[in-house]
Structures are given as structure tokens and as C-alpha cells.
Write a structure and sequence with these properties.
With 565 residues, this protein is of the alpha/beta class. It folds into 4 domains: 346 residues, TIM Barrel (Alpha-Beta Barrel), CATH 3.20.20; 52 residues, Alpha-Beta Complex (Oligo-1,6-glucosidase, domain 2), CATH 3.90.400.10; 35 residues; 88 residues, Golgi alpha-mannosidase II (Immunoglobulin-like). It is built from 18 helices and 22 strands. The strands form 6 sheets. It has an 8-stranded parallel sheet. A 5-stranded antiparallel sheet has the order 16-17-18-22-20. The longest helix has 16 residues. The radius of gyration is 24 Å and the shape is globular. Bound molecules: alpha-D-glucopyranose (GLC). Keywords: Glycosidase, Hydrolase. Its EC number is 3.2.1.10. GO terms for molecular function: alpha-amylase activity; oligo-1,6-glucosidase activity.
């Protein structure tokens, strides 16, 4: 496998709206990001991914684009963007942007034209179909719930939308539409962006639209995920996208690949002729989502992550992540309030030291938690609101719906970044567009910069350890203690070196015992508790959420091994 810059890099996702406001209008913006670049550099970040910053009516906070070549005025101007890019490059970092090409906003000029009349030249840029007996063309349910079809009174046809009705899907069968998209991508590449996170890309190809889903009792629209996800034939478009746009520059690409299984992943990211450098997998996210209904088993996390490590070994490259703008905060899912520092650092070590490129989502590095919202009016996220309406209509009691939302809403990840303990957590001098988490006085960047034992300083150390030791970048992965219910431990091996990462993902002590490798204090690199300086241990008790990272020479290990034989 090749050694490449983006494999060695650490990525950081910025949700622009909630990161830093420079104007006092309560909304994060590009200049706000510029003012925090030194913070990111100091943390050890190499590549910044920003959520959509294009012109948009903001039904889905920028994931509904109405002009691909301009900036949302609330975020700044194109000149601000160029300045951001320049400032990122001056600091020897890179910037990637979010490419939303499965759909546009319904206010994009293409869609305005498309819906203006049936024979408009842009009509087929989107997916239109006639209804059947005054009803939708099929009974498919979309990703945000409800039908995938919306009726247009003017032209008396339905258009297809996987997400909200304000996000009509582009018709990838249309070659002219595709050329426009490639043009746009090349336009950004010419401006010097360093790559893309490609949104919802596994959905661009749809199955035959006439195929109804089998009727499910009590459901008007039926989950049709497989009809619009990774559908056979998608590679024709993906390959073209790569050839006509992505392949032209030395950039990095990460596809958001909902529904792509681990078995299919090598096709998407294999180093020889895959489409993207990495994909974001959903198996782990689906597991996280199930936490609204039952407790997550650590064994499942171990199984899923290890499977992705093994399948991609020597073939492709993993994107390592545990948070993003669509999932609740990891400490609220897997961690513990009482052990906030310990759990945040333990979970960090768990995923960060695996083989792949680690991504950090803003605020994760200080252990930001889910936000408590009392009423549906306080929510912003379109998906959460649609979920609420559907469930209330189905007769689910309000308290139950609110409880599920509290655990699962995407808004949990979108509260403003907590910079300090001043007004609005230092995010804005105005009125923030969305509630600031009330715990900001305790959990914030400024406090943690001062505290050598903080979560933030743990991240910094972990990042520099990864940077200084190639074993954490290129080393082969092997899970140990496979059946342990709370300890997630693995080794990484590379050119005569071995590292071992041990994480007790539970609130109670756990006995670590692994005879094959004797661990010595002098091999200890990082942990979140003080440890005994005993020599050569193969067994010790891990405290709640304790993590330890060691590095040793394989030769040392071999001799220990022989002695044990
Ligand atoms: C992706 C984005 C999400 C957005 C959706 C529709 O999943 O991460 O935030 O709502 O695509 O664009």
C-alpha cells in the first residue's frame, strides 16, 4: 500500500453555522473559521472539511444548494472563501468542501426552470413522473420519512426527493445535467480546494421507479432504502465522475456511502481503481442510532470496527470517525457524565489509533455532550421535525417522541462550539441561531487548554503520537481479547514495531489479561489515569474508562513470547 499525505493526515469537520461567528449576527461564518485556524493548527489538524457554505435557503442547513458557485451571505462572500483557503494553506493545512450532488434546493435556477413547464430544457435535470390514479407514482418512503414524491400543481406531475421536498433529486441519467455538475466541480478545483466530502453519493442511481414496495400493514409509504441506495449501475456514474472531475488533481475524496456494506467497500475505495480515497461507512452509525431503543453492546462495536479494518487491509483505506453533524455526541452515547474526561479520552483512543485517517468533529475534542431541549419548537433540524410530526400522527405519545429525539436528534451535534465560559460560550456576541449547551461554563476550549489533563490535551498528545510513529498510521491491525465484554484492545504492527491500544469502555473496573505481550512502563506512551511503574505486566486492572497506549519492538515481544512457550 502506498504511503500518501492524506493517510497521514488528521481531519477536522467544521459545521460552519455553529463554529464561530465573527459578525455578531449569531451565525457562524467563514471569517469566524479564519479566526480559529491557529487553534486547529495547534491541535494538530492537517485537513479541514467544512459543511456546505454555498448559497442556500437553508431548509437543511446548507445541504439544499441554490447556487453552487456562490457563498451563503450569512457566511460571507466568495472573497472570504478565497481568503480562508489562503489562510489554511499559509498554515500548511488543507481545505476540503462538501459536494452535494444528489440533489439541489428547489430554489436552484435549474429546478425553477424544470418545474416551469413539461418541455423546458431543464425538465429532465430532475426526476418527474405522472401519478397513478391521482396518487404518487409509487409507495416509496424517503430518508426523512413520508413519500419520496411531491406533486407539482402547475405541471401536474410528481418530482422525486429522497430528503425533504425542498431537496429535489438530480436526474443522473441525464448526461447534460452530469456535465454541468462536472463543470462545477472543476470550477472549485481550479480555485484550489484540496478535495471533497461527497454527500449522499450512494443514492444518485435509482431503481426502476415503477417498482412498488410490498405493502406493509398500517404504512402508506414503505421503507424503500434498497431501491435508491447503491443500486446496480451506479458505478457507471461514479466512474465518470472520477474521470471527468475528481481525477484531475492531487486531491482527497471521501464519499458518504450510506448502505455500502463492508463487502462492497473495496469496490468503492480500492487503491488501484476505486472511486474515492475513503468512504464514511454507516454500519457503526446504524448501531449508534439503535441506542434510542436499546443499550449498545461493546462487542458489536468491536465486531463492526474490526471487520472494516480487516476487509480493507491491503486493499483500501478506512475513514475513522465517531461523530459528525448528523449523529448525537459520542460521550452521550457511549460515555458517562460522571467520567466525562475518562470516557471521552478512552473512546478517542479506541477509534483514533486504528488503521485509517481519523476525523474529529468540532467539539468532540473537548467532550461536548448532547443538548437538552424541552420542546419541539426548540429544535431546528428538519429531519427531527419531520420525525416528530410523523410519530405524533401515528399516535405515539409526545413524551416518548421527545425522549427518542433527545437521544437521537441531529441537533445534538449542532449546538454552538464552546470556546470559553463567557456569554454564549464565546461563539457570538449576538443572539446565537441555536441554543448553546448550558454546560459550557464547565466544558469549553479555554478551560481545557489550561488543564494538562484535559480531553483537549489528550487529543493533542494522541495526534502527535500518531504523527511521530508510523506504526499508528500504516501498522497492520489485529484485535485481541475478542470476546471481552468491555475491553476493546488491539495491536498495530509495522516494520519491527508493535503498538497496543487498550480501552475499558465501561463504568466499572475490568481485568486486562493477555499473556502473549508483556507490557513495560518504559513502553507506555499515553493513558488517562496515572499508572504503576511496575515492570513487565501481562495482567492489570483497568479503571472505569481507562485507556492505555504502548509501543514496543516486535523483537521484545518475540523474546517474551518464547519465554512463555
Ligand atoms: C447527508 C448530510 C446530511 C443531509 C443529507 C441530505 O447525509 O450529512 O446532513 O441532511 O445528506 O443532503
Amino acid at each position: 500500500m502506498k504511503q500518501l499525505w492524506w493517510k497521514e493526515a488528521v481531519f477536522y469537520e467544521i459545521y460552519v453555522r455553529s463554529f464561530m461567528d465573527s459578525t455578531g449576527d449569531g451565525i457562524g461564518d467563514l471569517k469566524g473559521i479564519i479566526s480559529k485556524l491557529d487553534y486547529l493548527k495547534d491541535l494538530g489538524i492537517d485537513v479541514i472539511w467544512i459543511s456546505p457554505m454555498y448559497r442556500s435557503p437553508n431548509c437543511d442547513n446548507g445541504y439544499d444548494i441554490s447556487d453552487y458557485r456562490d457563498i451563503l451571505p450569512e457566511f460571507g462572500t466568495l472573497d472570504d472563501f478565497y481568503d480562508l483557503l489562503k489562510q489554511v494553506h499559509v498554515r500548511d493545512m488543507k481545505l476540503i468542501i462538501d459536494l452535494v450532488i444528489n440533489h439541489t434546493s428547489d430554489l436552484h435556477p435549474w429546478f425553477i426552470e424544470s418545474r416551469s413547464c413539461r418541455n423546458n430544457s431543464k425538465r429532465n435535470f430532475y426526476i418527474w413522473k405522472q401519478g397513478i390514479k391521482n396518487k404518487e407514482p409509487n409507495n416509496w418512503k424517503g430518508i426523512f420519512g413520508g413519500s419520496v414524491w411531491e406533486y407539482d400543481r402547475n405541471t401536474k406531475e410528481y418530482y422525486f426527493h429522497l430528503f425533504s421536498k425542498n431537496q429535489p433529486d438530480l436526474n443522473w441519467e441525464n448526461g447534460k445535467m452530469r456535465e454541468e455538475i462536472y463543470d462545477m466541480i472543476n470550477w472549485w478545483l481550479e480555485r484550489g480546494v484540496d478535495g471533497f466530502r461527497i454527500d449522499a453519493i450512494s443514492h444518485i442511481k435509482k431503481d426502476v421507479l415503477d417498482k412498488k414496495m410490498p405493502y406493509v400493514k398500517g404504512e402508506r409509504y414503505v421503507d424503500a432504502f434498497e431501491r435508491y441506495t447503491n443500486v446496480q449501475g451506479i458505478f457507471y456514474y461514479l466512474k465518470e465522475l472520477k474521470e471527468k472531475a475528481l481525477n484531475k488533481y492531487d486531491i482527497v475524496t471521501v464519499g458518504e456511502a450510506n448502505g455500502v456494506t463492508v463487502e462492497q467497500a473495496p469496490l468503492w475505495v480500492n487503491e488501484k481503481d476505486g472511486i474515492f480515497n475513503m468512504i464514511f461507512q454507516f454500519e457503526l452509525l446504524d448501531l449508534f442510532e439503535s441506542q434510542s431503543y436499546h443499550k449498545i453492546s461493546i462487542l458489536d462495536i468491536k465486531r463492526i470496527l474490526s471487520k472494516w479494518q480487516k476487509v480493507l487491509e491491503n486493499k483500501g483505506w478506512n475513514a475513522l470517525f465517531i461523530e459528525n453533524h448528523d449523529v448525537p455526541r459520542i460521550v452521550s452515547i457511549l460515555g458517562d457524565n460522571e467520567y466525562l474526561r475518562e470516557s471521552a479520552t478512552c473512546i478517542a483512543a479506541m477509534y483514533f489509533m486504528m488503521k485509517g485517517t481519523p476525523f474529529i468533529y468540532q467539539g468532540q475534542e473537548i467532550g461536548m455532550t448532547n443538548i437538552k431541549l424541552e420542546d419541539i419548537e426548540e429544535y431546528n433540524d428538519i429531519k427531527s421535525k419531520e420525525f416528530y410530526c410523523t410519530k405524533i400522527k401515528e399516535g405515539v405519545p409526545k413524551e416518548k417522541v421527545m425522549k427518542i429525539l433527545g437521544l437521537s436528534s441531529r441537533d445534538n451535534a449542532r449546538s454552538p462550539m464552546q470556546w470559553n465560559d463567557k456569554k454564549n460560550a464565546g461563539f457570538t456576541t449576538g443572539i446565537p441561531w441555536f441554543s448553546v449547551n448550558e454546560n459550557y461554563k464547565k466544558i469549553n476550549v479555554e478551560n481545557q487548554l489550561k488543564d494538562s489533563k484535559s480531553i483537549l490535551n489528550f487529543y493533542k498528545k494522541m495526534i502527535s503520537i500518531r504523527r511521530e510513529n508510523k506504526v499508528f498510521i500504516y501498522g497492520n491491525y489485529k484485535m485481541i481479547l475478542k470476546d471481552h465484554m468491555s475491553i476493546f484492545a488491539y495491536t498495530r504492527t509495522f516494520k519491527g514495531e508493535k503498538a497496543i491500544v487498550i480501552c475499558n469502555l465501561s463504568v466499572v473496573n475490568a481485568l486486562y489479561r493477555y499473556d502473549t505481550i508483556k507490557l513495560n512502563y518504559s513502553n507506555f506512551l499515553l493513558g488517562n489515569y496515572p499508572i504503576d511503574k511496575e515492570k513487565y505486566a501481562t495482567e492489570f486492572v483497568l479503571k472505569p474508562y481507562e485507556t492505555r497506549i504502548y509501543k514496543l519492538n516486535c523483537l521484545e515481544e518475540d523474546s517474551v513470547w518464547k519465554k512463555n512457550m
